[in-house]
Amino acid sequence: MAEAADIQGSSPSPARRWLRRTATLAAAAPLLAGLLQVPVASAAPTAGPVAEKEPTGSRTVDVSLDTLTPSAPLEGDTLTVSGTVTNNSRQAVTTATVDLRVGPPLDNRSSIDEAARRTGYRADSDPAPLGGPYTVKIPRLGSGLSADFTLSVPVAKLGLDDPGVYQLGVSLSGRTSSQGYDRVLGIERTFLPWQPEATKKKTQLTYLWPLISSSRVSAETGPDDQQTPVFENDDLAAELAPGGRLERMVALGKELPVTWVVDPDLLATVDAMTRPYNVKSGTDTEPGRNQEVAERWLSSLEQAVAGKKVVALPFADPDLASLAHRGKDVSGSLGQLKPATEVARTTVETVLHVTPSTDFAWPVEGAVDPAIVDVATSAGARKVIARSDSLRDDLSYTPTAARPIGGGTTAVVADASLSTGFQSDLTRAENSTLAVQRFLAQTLAITLQAPDKSRSVVVAPQRMPTAAQAQTMATALRGLAPQRWTQSMDLIAASAVRPDPQAETDVPSASRYPQKLRKRELPVEAFRDMKKTQEELDGFEVILTMPYRVVTPFGNATSRMMSTSWRGQAPAAALYRIEVLDYLQGLTEQVRLIDKSDLTLSGRSATIPVTVQNRLLQGVDNLVLRLTSTKPTRLHLDDGKEWAEQPVKIDGGHSQSVKFTASANANGPVSMTAQLYTEDGKPYGRPMAFTVKVSEITPTVMLVIAGGVLLLVLAGVRMYSQRKRAAARNAEAEAAEEAEAAENGTESEAEAAEGDDPEQPSDPTPDTGPESGDPSGTGEKVDR
Hints:
The chain contains 19 helices and 30 strands. By secondary structure, it is an alpha/beta fold. A six-stranded mixed sheet has the order 26-24-28-29-22-30, with no helix packed on it. Strand 28 and strand 29 form a beta hairpin. Helix 11 crosses helix 12.
């Protein structure tokens, strides 16, 4: 339903229909691909089975390491490792044993990364198994079968000496029918951080906890006083419900030492869901039904952020890189960022009742160049969250995150390895366990790089972690809870830490910006659509008596058009922009001129009416209607002018007839143009043209009329004379009858008068016919 007008029934534009089909095809592509593969799969047996290379050597058996506790042991602990071994070969494995292998400490972060990339067994670098009682025996493991294992070893038996990061391997050794001797058939590696006592200097660790989602609210609102919002879909409820992505983020983050980074658009959307809202359903809308889910999530979030630092991104999380690379050449695009920043603070304060910091900008994946930094700081932000794979440091250790990059701007450089460590599919227990151990190992390695230096390290994970990724990140942060080598710090404090003088402060050039990111940026057309929408809105709001009912929803929709969440969703993004613009234009067209038929002007002067219609549900003002004559020498307006203007003010749902005085000088058709203007002189809506046919009364016509009048006078005189003579004859007859009656004495005078009263003359016959009910002719008569 429209905010201020009922414009249902209008057909979608061709561009909108095309984009809907494109978006539908894009969504259906995976399904279509699957269907197209069915015949190929069914035909495979006729061509014979495809020969697959049988796993051999240390890849014969897959070793899955599912749990490792404690993740960072202390002296006196018992390390427990559990998992699954799966025989991927076609031969049975016999006399198998599952062993634990503890290697020497790794020297640096690079050696940790190198060990993580190795997959097969290497006799020259992999240590010997512990053996003895710390072995699980599996007599037989058939082809394609799996077996679970659990290894428990006292930490004192692991041979851990100096603090550091130790490589930990779990292997399966056994025999197959083709090779009758024991050998390593599978291995999985992970890392064991060993720091039983607190370090002298701890690394200050800042972990960002993002609450960001896709844009889901359209520009449409209901006509009620509350302006009931219209959602594109109701998918957000699944993320807010128990077990959903956003529900997990809040429930887990509540107990963690993190800095909350929120998109105010998400807060505004969920807050709107706590009240009546509508959801698009085909060409209509239906009521949303997830108020309770939204209320519960917002209440949990408000409790979670109490006393914590909250950073608010600009409204709808605008794509700063796209704005810098594609939008800066479209006039007005940069101006969209400041309102998005201004509304961020008020939204967070209103919904969460906390005061956020709005001083941070976060480009996609922390990739920066000079243009991105300029755009990021153009709306007032003075701190840019970058990443170390963009702003590279050529140092043997990891420096403090904050560093000045010129112009009073501070770059807070997040560690790339730590920030990207939870981006894989972590629904499998093995992947989650490995990610946790690697994260803990990297943080300890950072601390041990320069044990006499206290440094600040920032972790900026992916913008929208899955529920499984959020769970794994929480597990990793709990592993750091004892704070033996790290100490938590919020982002605001981290940005103020004294920078390392050796850290890189030069912003990389535009040529170093990753091409894979550039290819996913919003196109230039997106910013042109935003500009057109803003121009339409600017011209519309000046005539409204309640402009806030339109400015707020469309202003927010414009911000949503440049959201980072549209990356990789080009058809859906384009459809959203077109629907917003179509809806706005549909509203502006509800204030319009009513088409007129041609007029006929018989005489030297008359008034010409022009009707203005307002189908909005609110009044319009500050409009001027201008009527222009193309031939002022034949027909002019207002004391000889070729055009005349009158102000227009109309209540919602009403029309107004505006009348103009016109004077004719000569016969013939005259083209007239009516156009609405705003008070600042800008045309509003489409012009309306019509023709006035001037037909002046000539002297010949006046003579004809005078002759007709003379004939009527003469006819009246004749009728009067005839009536007078008839009256005289009647009087003589009456006198004769009275004499005869008196002479004969048959009646009294009174009786004769009562019985013989003559008939009274009737009213004259009307000289005009009854009013015709037929429609008038095609020409419209003007008022005179």
